[in-house]
């Protein structure tokens, strides 16, 4: 049999495979609440404009509420033959209220309907991501506050570079995640315009009020161009782009947790809650949550590439290709929320090994830059010469198998006579971090100032 919604010009129904490729109900049922909300706003507006009678609008309103409760109770007869959530809802409305149901689609198309539903859904996800990021940021701040003066090696090329503090390292991620939150907020602001009333593509001849439906749905205004309204998915791409950047930040932190919890580092220990054992090696304690988080980020990046690829060749206005937007965004959003929650848990339950961090910070000549800076400041050497002198001292210490502070003054003076006893004051890791007082630097005072600023900003 042919389709009840659009079957007028068709003699035969679709091939079974056609139905399988065409139907989206298996996934877009997730938009049911947005779809019903949009329909209620549309029907109310049609009545206010005199396009629908009040009694029809009232029947539609009540019918839609029944549909909503049926879906929420889990006893709604979803049908693949009815393709998508829009036609499933409308068909059920017809069962419930009869003829007035057929008037709901006046001055509307599934094209503006789906664009509206999906915008509402993605808008909620921007808010949810912002809230989850807030929670993660608070966990990082708590961590940073407790470790603002815990010295650790800072790395470049994953080689020991200069001492930093663990709190400073945590605060680096606070900055990243706060920018991520800002990106979701920016995306939300830009997407908050209503496509409803663009109809199929050209607008409608009915005297609708797009400002009224925009307001009823919490949009700032209607979209100004009907072709744009039904054919762009930049709001979804912007969500995926924001999610992708956030995902990369999450993945880098997860990677650090994996490295730091290894036997070779032992900077941190993951709590039992976020670890697993091995079925053969009894000693094992694997950071599976961090590894999976690192891996699942690939789904978010993949979703982003997939939707960009869907969109890049489409002429205006609507093409059915755009139905492929939803599964990508749903999966990316679910993955992001899971990853944010897992990271928050891992950070909150982490044990940080202060002694290990400090011992590692002193290894690898991490205060060589402090020594070079001292030669510039106290002995008046040009930085390039100080760099060379320090390099010679590092080579000497390396040959003797000791750290820089373990060289004798005589040994140091054999490399450069301007060196005095006072140099030993800058070779310790605590003095090193305390001296990095430049704005944003690793000195515990600076780190604490940043923590205080963020705590105030978050309220
Ligand atoms: N299920 C469709 C989608 O998600 C709804 C819009 C269909 N419009 C159309 N003219 N076939 O894109």
UniProtKB/TrEMBL annotation:
<keyword id="KW-0028">Amino-acid biosynthesis</keyword>
<keyword id="KW-0963">Cytoplasm</keyword>
<dbReference type="Pfam" id="PF00206">
    <property type="entry name" value="Lyase_1"/>
</dbReference>
<dbReference type="GO" id="GO:0004056">
    <property type="term" value="F:argininosuccinate lyase activity"/>
</dbReference>
<dbReference type="InterPro" id="IPR000362">
    <property type="entry name" value="Fumarate_lyase_fam"/>
</dbReference>
<feature type="domain" description="Argininosuccinate lyase C-terminal">
    <location>
        <begin position="365"/>
        <end position="434"/>
    </location>
</feature>
<dbReference type="InterPro" id="IPR029419">
    <property type="entry name" value="Arg_succ_lyase_C"/>
</dbReference>
<dbReference type="InterPro" id="IPR020557">
    <property type="entry name" value="Fumarate_lyase_CS"/>
</dbReference>
<dbReference type="InterPro" id="IPR022761">
    <property type="entry name" value="Fumarate_lyase_N"/>
</dbReference>
<comment type="similarity">
    <text>Belongs to the lyase 1 family. Argininosuccinate lyase subfamily.</text>
</comment>
<dbReference type="GO" id="GO:0005829">
    <property type="term" value="C:cytosol"/>
</dbReference>
<feature type="domain" description="Fumarate lyase N-terminal">
    <location>
        <begin position="8"/>
        <end position="302"/>
    </location>
</feature>
<keyword id="KW-0456">Lyase</keyword>
<comment type="pathway">
    <text>Amino-acid biosynthesis; L-arginine biosynthesis; L-arginine from L-ornithine and carbamoyl phosphate: step 3/3.</text>
</comment>
<dbReference type="GO" id="GO:0042450">
    <property type="term" value="P:L-arginine biosynthetic process via ornithine"/>
</dbReference>
<dbReference type="InterPro" id="IPR009049">
    <property type="entry name" value="Argininosuccinate_lyase"/>
</dbReference>
<keyword id="KW-0055">Arginine biosynthesis</keyword>
<dbReference type="InterPro" id="IPR024083">
    <property type="entry name" value="Fumarase/histidase_N"/>
</dbReference>
<protein>
    <recommendedName>
        <fullName>Argininosuccinate lyase</fullName>
        <ecNumber>4.3.2.1</ecNumber>
    </recommendedName>
</protein>
<dbReference type="InterPro" id="IPR008948">
    <property type="entry name" value="L-Aspartase-like"/>
</dbReference>
<dbReference type="Pfam" id="PF14698">
    <property type="entry name" value="ASL_C2"/>
</dbReference>
